[in-house]
Amino acid sequence: MTSKGIVWVTGCRGFLGGEMVERFERAGYNVVGTDVELSVCEPERLEAFAEEVQPSIVVNCAGIRREATTLSTRVKAYEVNALGARNVALAANTVGATIVQVSSDDVYSAKLDEPVNEFDSPEPDTPYGKSKRAGEMMVRNTTNDHIIVRSSWLYHASSGRMKAILDAAREGGTIEVRTDQFAAPTSVSLYADLIFRALDKGATGTFHIVSRGRASRYDFAAKILEYAGYDPEKVLIPVEDPRTAENIVLESMLLDIAGIELPTWEDDLKAYMEEQGLLA
What we know:
Elements: E1 6-10, H1 15-26, E2 30-34, H2 43-53, E3 57-60, H3 74-94, E4 98-102, H4 127-142, E5 146-150, E6 154-155, H5 160-170, E7 175-178, E8 181-183, E9 186-187, H6 188-200, E10 205-208, E11 215-216, H7 217-228, H8 232-235, E12 236-239, E13 246-247, H9 253-257, H10 265-275
Parallel strand pairs: 1-2, 1-3, 3-4, 4-5, 5-10, 6-9, 7-12, 8-13
Antiparallel strand pairs: 8-11
């Protein structure tokens, strides 16, 4: 297979970074990954690396995670999620590469009355969301050659919540799952596929890449178990907490306008579990 070009993935040892490396390689790209050994907080080293590698695409998966971002750690979050994003964009600029900036539904308020699309103004209400919003703005102000991707509840089978749910079922255990947090679960397969399509078409701008519909974390977990052949009621313990209830449902308005038909979250999940050999 002839290589489609060189892709540089930052944060390559994180869950999403690792998936991006694997999926870009499968799609025929020559992939170079970096992680903590090349901090996104070191702009001169980033630019030197870009000059050495000469990527045509830079995928910035580096970041401080939501659960690690609090009021007391927000300085580091802004350093990595905001200034780090700017530094990666500057490095991409030095070699004329497109930057794919990984963002989040957390750039919106956690308690929305209705779904939001790319034309709605973000108003984050958490330190993490504010740092990711700042990163988006930094990238936009640094280069026009960018794709900013917001998604929600990205999942894959080898780690995270999905693995924990299936592990509990296999071991005959139980797991607590929230009934008062809502979003649109999205597989890493759908996410990567639509990024590839955007890159192939030379698209730029900000996109919501999410499956269609709305689910609670309980709904999502129950459907995982159902597809895997387990009884959800024997595994899941429903819990709620009004203090941390959430409703952030993204709509992919720009993809709809482009005529790209997105699957429902149930169909996306079923297709992903079939891909991974997890269907009963």
